[in-house]
Amino acid sequence: MPQELLLQVTPEIAANQEQLKNHISKQIQVSANAIQQVVVLKRSVDARQKAIKINLKVAVYLKGDFFEATKFQLPDYPNVATAQEVVVVGAGPAGLFAALQLIELGLKPIVLERGKEVRGRRRDLKAINVDHIVHEDSNYCFGEGGAGTYSDGKLYTRSKKRGDVTRILELLVAYGATPDILVEAHPHIGTNKLPQIIQDIRQKILACGGQVLFETRVTDILIKNNEVQGVVTHQGDTILANKMILATGHSARDIYQLLDTKKIFIEAKPFALGVRAEHSQALIDQIQYSCDYRGELLPPAPYSIVKQVGGRGMYSFCMCPGGVIAPCATSPGEVVTNGWSPSKRDQPTANSGIVIELRLEDFKPFAKFGALAGMEFQKSIEQKAWQLAGESQRVPAQRMIDFTQGKVSSSIPKTSYVPGTTSVEMGQVFPGFLTQILREGFSEFGKSMKGYLTNEAILHAPESRTSSPVRIPRDPISYEHLQIKGLYPCGEGAGYAGGIISAAIDGEKCALMVGECLRQKNMQ
């Protein structure tokens, strides 16, 4: 049996297998030659002290111990071409992993995706970046793989209670992700590598007899006696099914409006909103690692920061080391920012959403919209930003210290945001209470991270799609909608997830509940 050890070593030792073996041999008092294999199980950077250390959890195999390299294999999926059909609306992580789980259960998924397949999305992303043209069904949020495909592919989740995180990571490795995602404290695939993995998942769904229909937007849900009967697409086609997993993501506003119009119960949900701040990666490295130069052995430094300001939480969100800021509007006449990193995180800039928690009472000016009040609040800020920046995909921008002082920046340097920026006093973008909290909060951030508050940092507005402004309520046991039988609200768009991993887990859970419902029905 291998011995498991917790180690704290220098970056040099962590990066060199022979040095690591020698270090371990001294720890367990055996010859280095007696060590057959060292397998790193977990790895994280500890930068709390000036001398940076790498925390490792390792399994040590001595000579004579049985060792076999782990092989990550896909489940033995059956062919479901003639099986009972289940409609899955949305091909983001929730929808795709729901489809895979349905196949494992012997059910046939019909996945409907309003956007294009993963490769076809690229032309539309170029259009928004270069020509400022927003394709409402194909953009950074909509299309195969969902928002995560071309906006980073972060794989960590703060909540381990949601389900089996390891299962999702191992499935991703089996579909082509690097095994490092099972080891790193903050696993990340990268926007450049995720598309192939997403494409391979789709190919597996098709090979097993499932269906994936692109450029197929759902415009109506057929309901009889409070039970799902099927859906109607924008082409006018009807697809019949009495089980539907609704996994449309947090930006599918037309779906929320459809549910509201049909008087299907939904409710407003608090979310967070703010700006996206960009620093040079070298500065963040200096702050986090307390050194002038990071070197080759340490990863580009991330940061995570939370403050209570004016009785509200203000915190970093979706921090992208060595990354860029992207335009993530889903309709003309609005501006939205997000961030992403390539797999190597080798861009010269670092960016992070800096957001403030909102409350339901903040949406009172939009009370006439009922459950859609938060969505309309969100939309109003995105539209105002679009107007202030010049009615294009340019974003309002301001130097950080200038923002805290309410002063328009005389110049804005080129940032990683390709469509460009317009110098704006951002107090015009946000309601007064949000502006005040952001100003005070950045000053507080600067006290905790010396050097963070600088006029070399550029704020881009708004960061507004942190999570869904609507919750589609469901039974906590059956996962069915509280009102409509056969409707399974799922993932971020329904208000039950917050990232790739948690969305994938929720997709699997919904599929399992569909399977259980059908099993019980067949037993009757």
TrEMBL record:
Domain annotation FAD/NAD(P)-binding: ranges: 85-254
InterPro entries assigned: FAD-binding_protein, FAD-depend_C, FAD/NAD-bd_sf, FAD/NAD-binding_dom
Molecular function GO terms recorded: oxidoreductase activity
Protein origin, superkingdom: Bacteria
Domain FAD-dependent protein C-terminal: from-to ranges: 270-466
Pfam families tied to this protein: FAD-depend_C, Pyr_redox_2
The name this protein goes by in its record: FAD-binding protein
